[in-house]
Amino acid sequence: MRRVLSTLAILIFLPLVLCADMNLKGEALPTEVILTWNAVDGSVYYDVYLGSEFLARIEDGKREYRVENLDSDTEYSFSVAARDGKNADLDAGFLDISTENWDGTYKWVNETDKDNKGKMRSLTLRVVTCHDAVYGQYYEIYQVPEKSAEFKIFPLFAFGDNSAGEWHKYKENSDAGRSYKENAEIFNTSIFKPGKWRVTRIEMDKDKIVAHIETSAIGIVVSTATTYEFCVDPSGNRYILLDTIADNSMVNSFLFKNPNPGEGDEFVLREID
């Protein structure tokens, strides 16, 4: 079906006389574009394209389409063709639009007196969009303490660095070692300290990162998954959902969770800059 529709679009777009009735518009988010357009008399459906790629056929009555999983800070070309029941073009709209990005500073503030001995009164992250020749677009995430210099918490190692999967001592004096230690200590509510750790897997999507790490402490090896999810609320405000979950229930109970009422266990960091 996609091949047939795309071919028809090429043939039918050529003689089309455009008018201003469709008025194709777009709302750009960091990894999405929300397309909207006016109704066209006689149309049965609307075909949506990204460049020459067919995306979706929308039945008449719905005049909105959300294009997801896009790169940030990137220009895209969209078109929407209004067609009747015989697949003849009635009108078309074209739009060039650039996505935004997640770059900025995000902060969570503790509204309670449960602060892990004063270590979790607030949490601030800074996000920077980057590009790797092999892995494409990704985000660097820095933790910004109130009384010391910021440090990078993602990625801890350069992509392709095989030492990421090796065991590292908890007190290792490397950039990755210091970052892991500083970050781990503010979330650890127990008296136990890790002996060693290693990165086992990283998952990267357009608006979500999951870092999997194994930690060894008092002879027990535990896997944790830390998730950074980038979101936009209905008012257009950006925020990050941060959560760390261990595969061991006892260890999971030692991880500091969001104490703010009504927010759940995830930390909600809202953009401040």
Question: What's the structural blueprint in terms of helices and strands?
Answer:
Layout: H1 2-13, E1 25-28, E2 33-36, E3 45-50, E4 53-59, E5 64-67, E6 75-83, E7 89-98, E8 104-109, E9 122-132, E10 136-143, E11 151-154, E12 168-169, H2 175-187, E13 196-204, E14 208-217, E15 220-232, E16 238-246, H3 249-254, E17 267-271
Antiparallel strand pairs: 1-2, 2-5, 3-4, 3-6, 6-7, 8-9, 8-17, 9-10, 10-11, 12-13, 13-14, 14-15, 15-16, 16-17
Tally of DSSP β-strands? 17
- Report the β-strand fraction as a percent range: 35-45%
Pairing-aware structural class of the strands and helices? mainly beta
Query: Can you list the strand order of the major beta sheet?
Result: 11-10-9-8-17-16-15-14-13-12
Spans of 5+ residues with little confidence (pLDDT < 50)?
A: 1-20
Distance between the termini: 45 Å
Rg: 24 Å
Query: How many domains is the backbone divided into?
Result: 2
Averaged pLDDT: 90
Biggest β-sheet description: 10 strands, antiparallel
What does the overall shape look like? elongated
Number of helical regions: 3
Order of helices and strands: HEEEEEEEEEEEEHEEEEHE
Q: How much helix is in the residues?
A: 10-25%
